[in-house]
Design a protein that fits this description.
Elements: E1 3-10, H1 14-25, E2 30-34, H2 41-44, E3 48-49, H3 60-83, E4 94-98, E5 116-119, H4 120-126, E6 136-140, E7 144-145, H5 148-163, E8 166-169, E9 173-179, E10 183-189, E11 192-201, E12 216-226, E13 239-241, E14 246-249, E15 254-258, H6 272-285, E16 293-304, E17 311-314, E18 320-324, H7 330-347
Helix pairs in contact: 1-5, 1-7, 3-5, 3-7
Bound molecules: glycine.
Length: 365
Amino acid sequence: MQQYSEIILIGGGLIGLSLAVELKLRGATVTVLSRDVQEAAGLVGAGMLAPQAEQLPPGPMLELCLRSRALYNDWTRKLEEITGLDTGYWPCGILSPVYERPPCTRLEATQDTPSYWLESEAILQQQPGLGADVVGGWWFPQDGQVDNRRGLIKILQRAAQELGVKIVEGVTVEKLVNSPNKIITEIQTNQGNFGADHYILTAGAWSGQLLSIPVYPRKGQMLSVRVPNPIQTLPLKQVLFGSDIYIVPRRDGLIVIGATSEKVGFNSGLTPNGIEALLSGAIRLYPGLKEFEIQEFWWGFRPETPDSMPILGQSSWTNLTLATGHYRNGILLAPVTAQLISNWVLNQQDDPLLNYFRGDRFQVL
Ligand code: GLY
């Protein structure tokens, strides 16, 4: 027998859960089919909210990321009110130290995107203890972070449950069944068939296994260390974003270090090469952390697309919407994705920005 819901989210990671909460708050009946939330990219990253530190060029992707960053405060507050839990949202700013002085020390800035070049003395005042070969760096005061791993994703799960979203874990989607008139009629899974009026694909790196869309896994390995006596001193009070390495200090003394970027398909696990690169990059940038106690290692798969931009909005099937391929910016883009895709699915409200993210830009749908 088919299990029915108004809207089904195919994928229970950060994007699927953010959408489920938003759609439910707007009155829809929602079911989330999740294969294994432990593998979600949203649980893997460091939670940087870094449109400026990532140095995205001006254009629709930067605009989308800045819009989402601007939503973060209210979005996390709303989730905290629903659940009574702390997301760890911290608009702490991001410092981007460099080892070679760039030819130009001015970046295009607007009122919403201030950025400052700091010479070597100034950067050491901003962040004592940086590596000896840092020659200066950028300060992006409006970038920040959220505690995705211990906070956000668990809070989204809790919020979804409290609001009455049905989350079915352990579901492997086997097939999207469609009719000749381009409608998905049901989905076959290892737990039976599910049907809905509308489906949203939020399966991250696994999306390409369900539909012919160019979304590929890009592996990242990560680790964390802990500051001794964080109550006495917190040596890092902002994110450090170096070249190929970032160091993200949480307010309780945990420090997350990431991440490798490997084209190895779904090859799972940690490698000595990967961890060595993270440790040497992090110690070069902030030598003091070589004495900190290691807490944990983990890895996961970012959903990459050919142009590194997500795939958002309508598909070739009338009742299937796409919200996937967020690559390096899924945690940042969760609130704006939830907002724009809910507007589209519930009210057919097509934000002009969505046009840049349509799946048919790749000509393979
Ligand atoms: N957002 C940073 C990363 O994907 O490593």
